[in-house]
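Below is a concrete protein record.
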Amino acid sequence: MVNLSIEVKQLHKLDGEGKLRAFADVAIADLFLVKGLRIVDGKKGLFVGMPRRQGKDGQWYQTVLPLSEEVKSQLNDLVLQAYQEQ
């Protein structure tokens, strides 16, 4: 297992009836701040969506990509845990 120091720095829950539940910012190894992770209520429950930007073609493209399933899972678990505790 990859042992990264990841910390949720800010979490902002949203009111309303849409699928988007919150935004989160995380610090990685106290060296990088990743802003704009999304907590979304999908068909299979809550998940963490990576930051994304809309291209000139109207499509959405992720701007941050975890390079392994381990890191993606660790990040997902940490952010969802912070969401549930708040």
